[in-house]
Specification:
The chain has 148 residues and is an all-alpha fold. 78% of the residues lie in helices and 0% in strands. Among the domains are: 40 residues, no CATH class; 39 residues.
Length: 148
């Protein structure tokens, strides 16, 4: 492909080229430093299309955000509900702590340890050892067949 023209680069930058021609230009820009430099200068010369924003856009947007934040804070700050929630959480904590003390004093936790000490751990061969033994015996059989 020959060098890309400035008009073609401008259309490439603006995204106005057909897909096939767009791919050819991309491939050429990867290979040709001269055209790549022209492409960079075309990007520098390219101006953004004007977006029609009103003069009061910024102030209106800030006002909307401020109103939304004020509404959010008004909804989320509910002191009576949070106090009630804290009281409920504290009551649950006291109940759990009290039950723990009672169970410790009655020796319930000691009985759990005694029961777990009395159970015996079975001496079983682990799965890994079983696999190793099976594989070893299979390899020994295979070695015996090859030696025959």
């Amino acid at each position: 492909m020959e060098h890309v023209s400035k008009e073609q680069l401008a259309r490439f930058v603006e995204g106005e080229l057909p897909d096939a021609e767009n791919k050819l230009v991309e491939t050429h820009l990867d290979d040709c430093d001269i055209c790549f430099q022209l492409y960079v200068s075309a990007i520098d010369d390219w101006s953004m299309p004007e977006i029609g924003l009103s003069e009061t856009f910024t102030s209106e947007t800030v006002a909307k955000i401020t109103n939304q934040n004020a509404c959010y804070h008004a909804k989320s700050s509910n002191p009576p509900a949070s106090k009630a929630r804290k009281k409920q959480t504290f009551a649950h904590y006291l109940l759990a702590a009290g039950l723990t003390v009672v169970l410790m004093l009655t020796g319930a936790f000691q009985n759990v340890l005694t029961i777990s000490d009395q159970t015996s751990v079975k001496d079983e061969v682990s799965i890994t050892d079983q696999l190793m033994n099976t594989t070893t015996s299979w390899l020994d059989q295979l070695k015996g067949e090859i030696n025959r």
